[in-house]
Amino acid sequence: MPEISQLGKSQYFEWGSILWFVEPGNLDIERMSVGLITFYPRTTQDEHLHSGDEQVIYVVSGAGAQIIDDQTYRLQPGDIKHIHPYTRHKVINDTDDELKLIIVYTPSKFQRLLAQPPSASPTGGEADIRALLDLDVIRGLLNKLSEAIGLSLTIIDTAGETVVKADNYPRFCALLDGASGGRHCRPYVERVIGAIGRTHGPHFFQCCNNVASILIPIFDGATVIGYIRCGQVYLNKPDQDELQRTIDALAARYAIPACDLLAGSTAIRIEPKSRLYAAAEATFAVASLITEMSAAALRQKELDNSRLSLVKEQIASAKLEQALREADFKLLQSQINPHFLFNTLNTIAQMAYIDGAEKVANLVWSLSDLLRFTLRKTEELIPLREELKMLDNYLHIQQSRFGSRLSVAFDIQPGLDETLIPCMLLQPLVENAIVHGFELSDGEGAITITVRRRGRSLHCRVRDNGLGFDPQADPAGKGGGIGLASVKNRLQYYFKDQYRFAIHSEKSRGTTVELTFPAIGGN
User: Fold this and answer.
1) Are 129-332 and 380-523 the same fold in CATH?
2) In what residue span(s) does the Histidine kinase domain sit (predicted)?
3) Considering the entire predicted model, what is its pTM?
4) What are residue 446's DSSP bridge partners?
5) In angstroms, rounded to a whole number, what is the distance separating the alpha carbons of residues 447 and 513?
6) Which of 151, 361, 372, 412: CA 20 to 30 A from 518?
């Protein structure tokens, strides 16, 4: 059997390392990324934003904590944690031993990124992107999206010159742009523009000092009128000796203080390539929006100037909301190929079994069965029986951790097996019952899951006997964290306002979550 270091590609950080077993190499590869993370003793990972990607982690060994949107959760061997899109996240190893996690990213689906442009041009030919866009409106869009995905965004014209950039543009790049008149990185950008001209699709590239970005074309019909540059991050921590030589050379060439360049380089984020690709999906939605806005701008020029500003603002706001909502849901429901994931998990389980860690091996195999459902190519709605089967797998793993402390009862009305519900609807409620209900207590936990059909509606209830909370101190039930928000978002997406979501809790006496929504399918 090969050494584990031969099974993937390593990425190093101040706090530890990631050994990637599966990582997308090109934008036309659609699959998840899988890696083994090692956190060094007494280290803290930098806080980062999950711009559009979902993440599942499994604790192999060690202990620590993770912080999600200012809420702290302990990490112990055997834990499975789900990090939702658009949340702030960091991991802390507060022990003297290494903390090892299996991490699974779900990247975007890139078919839409690779689609060929339409054959006809709405504007009838080539145009300067500066003349077609209200740069103040576009700057506002870039700032909102770059804040959401946590990466820099810049609009470039067809010659490679910067048109407008977001406020989080890296200071390292800004110093070089200012000292060179924008010429320092121009050769790298021009080469990528040439490649895009041949393929009509986005391109990944690394420029000076190995700063990584994706360049996405903006079309006016079949004509490229500009590009969005997304990223400007490091894929690996730079070698310090090589970085210092580069900084010294750049400082001498452009008369920039070396300390300023070094500080700017140190501030550049380190991100995996899969995170960069996930952000590209949302960025492409905005590129499409800019194309539509450019065509609308030509038509609006014929209108009275007093109406023009209001109409363009309304179009921009509505289109941005729709584009971000679509990008959010497509990232949430991204289709992936689980073949690579299961091969990787089986390899890890076999290695653990050979090393004598049979319990870890069995848990990894159980994890594989669970992820086979949660990370497969899902339909929009699934039969209730499949949701309950997945929930059984999740609870099997949790009960291997809690033992007799955790008891679960199912009360399911007969004849509902084929009734359709949103995928992963009940699991976050059960997870909240465990994490917030009794994980931090020494008592025994009991959870009851009830599903009933009432006329044309389906009624689901998850009740626990855990710690509960005071509704007066927490009227919105925010103690439930992002899991409850995810359930609400799914119900809102599928059923608009035709659903009911209610939480009843009493401190020290438990919590009940009730869902009611239209019953679809079934007998």
Assistant:
1) no
2) 425-521
3) 0.50
4) 407
5) 11
6) 372
